[in-house]
Design a protein that fits this description.
The protein is an alpha+beta fold and 203 residues long. It is 47% helix and 13% strand. Strands 1, 2, 3 and 4 form a 4-stranded antiparallel beta sheet that branches. The longest helix has 43 residues.
Length: 203
């Protein structure tokens, strides 16, 4: 009887231990799974990859790269590098240090009354950009809005202003700034660098 009781007591001590082992193993397995998931996420997101070096403008030119875009893909002066869907500058050739030109002529003329006068101003314009086709596409896309703001600028001209030698140069700059402001509002990028008059009549 004493031996039987001893056997029962030993069996009673072993049961709680056998239940505790799977719980410990389960907890350890869960920790390993969570840690493994975190490490895999960091690996695939590039956390462990070395950061690319940042070069100076002179070093980028020496390597035949865009002086305004560093190796990390970040824009220089204006932060526009084409990597995030925004326009990028056109090069004449991969080795060239100068950028190519892209022109676009707005088909319809602009006709407005001169403020404080019976005279009428009629112009036709073309724009120049050193960025890619995206700028031209944006000009076409927002043509109606651009025409509106450009005509507002023209209406601010007075009769006395028209006779000034620098009037056309000043008007071109004002039109360029107005166009870029509108494009930046709708597309977050302007890109218009110069405005040229292909026809300019005041009568």
């Amino acid at each position: 009887m004493a031996e039987a009781a001893a056997v029962v007591e030993e069996g009673a001590e072993q049961k709680p231990k056998s239940k505790l082992i799977p719980i410990i193993l389960g907890a350890v397995g869960l920790i390993v799974l969570v840690a493994g998931t975190m490490m895999a996420t960091l690996y695939f997101t590039g956390f462990f990859k070395p950061k690319p070096p940042t070069l100076t403008a002179q070093e980028r030119i020496a390597l035949g790269l865009d002086p305004e875009v560093d190796v990390a893909g970040k824009g220089g002066k204006d932060g526009k590098d084409g990597k995030d869907g925004k326009p990028e500058k056109l090069k004449k050739s991969p080795q060239a240090e100068r950028f190519d030109f892209n022109y676009f002529k707005m088909e319809n003329e602009f006709l407005v009354n001169v403020t404080g006068s019976k005279r009428v101003m009629s112009i036709q314009v073309a724009v120049m950009t050193r960025y890619d086709q995206k700028v031209i596409d944006n000009l076409k896309k927002h043509e109606f809005a651009l025409r509106s703001v450009m005509m507002d600028v023209m209406r601010q001209s007075q009769d006395a202003d028209i006779n000034k030698p620098e009037f056309r140069v000043d008007l071109a700059k004002k039109l360029r700034d107005a166009m870029n402001a509108l494009l930046e509002k709708y597309e977050e990028f302007g890109g218009v660098e110069d405005v040229f008059f292909t026809s300019f009549i005041v009568q």
